Amino acid sequence: MQERTSVNNPQIKAIGKLQQKKYREESGYYLIEGFHLVEEALKASVKYREILATEAALSRLAQLGLAYDEGKLIKISQSVASHLSSTKNSQDIFMTVKINMTVKINRPKHFAFSYGKWVLLDDLADPGNVGTIIRTADAAGFDGVILSNKTVDLYNPKVQRSMQGSQFHLNLIKADLPDAIASLKAADIPVYASLLDPAAKQLGDFAPVAQVALIIGNEAHGVSPEIEALADEKLYIPIKGRAESLNAAVAAGIMIYHFS
Amino acid sequence: MQERTSVNNPQIKAIGKLQQKKYREESGYYLIEGFHLVEEALKASVKYREILATEAALSRLAQLGLAYDEGKLIKISQSVASHLSSTKNSQDIFMTVKINMTVKINRPKHFAFSYGKWVLLDDLADPGNVGTIIRTADAAGFDGVILSNKTVDLYNPKVQRSMQGSQFHLNLIKADLPDAIASLKAADIPVYASLLDPAAKQLGDFAPVAQVALIIGNEAHGVSPEIEALADEKLYIPIKGRAESLNAAVAAGIMIYHFS
C-alpha cells in the first residue's frame, strides 16, 4: 500500500486543492470525507481514484465489510489527514470521487425526461440550502434535482455536508433551466414555480400528482421573471403570521412533501 | 448626540462583548444588527438601551419614518461599526435590546398555556436550525416556540440571523420541557413528538387540529426518551427515498405547515 506522510507531497497538495471549484473542474474529481459518505459512495458503486485514510481509519474501513479496490488505498499520516479535512471532527478518511454531473440538457438530443418528480433550482446561492433541498428531494423519493448554471457548485464542501450522501441516490443535472423546462413540458410533466405572491394559487389547492417539476427561486430575488413566465402554474405557500418569507430550503421541503 | 469613535471606549467594548452568551446574561441585553431587525424591533416597541449607527446610517434611519428615542442614539465611527459587526456586509446600525425571555414554566403559578399552536425544541444544537424553525413557526401563524434549557442560546448571532426578526412576532419561552408539556396537557393541547420511526403514526394520517404542540428533537439524537414518553402521539414523516433522515428545520417546517 502506498503511504503519504507529508502535506508537501505533490499528490496530497493536488487532492487538497479539490476544495476549490477550479481544481475540481480541471481534474474531474471531488473530495468526500468521513465514513458515512465513503460508505454511501462504495454502496453506490461510484467511480473513484483513491481512498486516503490513517492507519486507524483503514482498520475501521476493513471492518465495515464493504467491497473496495485495495490498489486504490493510500495510508496517510495524521498531519496529512488534518490538512485534507474541512471539518472540526475529522474521521481521517477521504475519497476522490469522479464528478458525474455531465448530462447537459442544452443538448436535448442527448437527454430527455420521460416521467417523474423533479426539483429545479433557479440560481440558489446558499450551499446549505442546496444540499438540504437535495437531501429532502431524496427523502421524499423524488427522481432528481436540476441545478441552473448559476446555482452554487454542487461539489462545494458545504453543499456536500448538508447533502449527506444524497448525491449517490438521485439524478443531479446541471442545465440551462429554459431547456430543462422545455424537456419537462415535452414529457407532459407539469412545471410549477414557487412565488412569494399571495395572488398565486395556494399550495393547499394543488391536488396530489403523479409527476411534477417544482421551481425554487434564489434566496434574495426569488424565481427570475423569464423562468416564471415558462411555468404552467404559480404556487404560493401561505404566510399566516408576520414573517416576511420562509427559508428557501424549508419552503422547498413543504412543497416537496406536499407532492410526494 | 453622543459620539463613539474608538473601539477601546469602555461602552463600545461592553457592547462588543454581547456576542458572548456570558455577557448577554450578565447585562440582560443582546445586540441586533442591520436595518431590517432594527425596524422590526422599533415596530414591536421592544425595550432597548441604545441605537448605534454611523452618520450615513443615522440619516437613513431618520428617513424611515419610525418612532425612536433620540436620546438613545449614539453616532459611531466606521471602525467602531466594523468592530461591532458580525457579518460581511454590515449596514452600520446596531441596537442593544432587552432580553425578554423571562417566563419560566417551571414556576407554573406564573404561567399557563390557554390555547394555541406551539413548537417545542428538545435540546437543538444548531443555531441555524433554531432560528429557521422560529421563522417558520412565525410564518405559519403559530403562537410560540418553547426552547428546552439545553437548546442553543436564542441570542446567539447565528440564531438571530436565521430568525430574521421573528423574535418580535411570537412567544419565545425557555423552560424545562416536562413542565411545559404538563402545562400544555392541562390546557388540553395535544402534544406530538416527531420521531424517525416508521412504526409511529404517519404525518398524513393526522387530521387538521385547532391547537397542537409539536416536539422537535436534537439533530443527532432525536427526541429524548423521557420527553417522548410524555407525548400523546408519536409522529413520523415518511422517508420514501434513500436519505436516512430529514434536516431538523425542514422536518419541523413540513410538520408546522401540516398543522397550520
Automatic annotation (TrEMBL), chains A, B:
Residues 31-103 form the RNA 2-O ribose methyltransferase substrate binding domain. It comes from the Bacteria. One of its GO terms (biological process) is methylation. Keywords: Methyltransferase, Transferase. InterPro entries: Alpha/beta_knot_MTases, MRM3-like_sub_bind, Ribosomal_eL30-like_sf, rRNA_Methyltransferase, SpoU_MeTrfase, SpoU_subst-bd, tRNA_m1G_MTases_N. One of its GO terms (molecular function) is RNA binding. SMART domains: SpoU_sub_bind. GO terms for cellular component: cytoplasm. This is tRNA/rRNA methyltransferase.
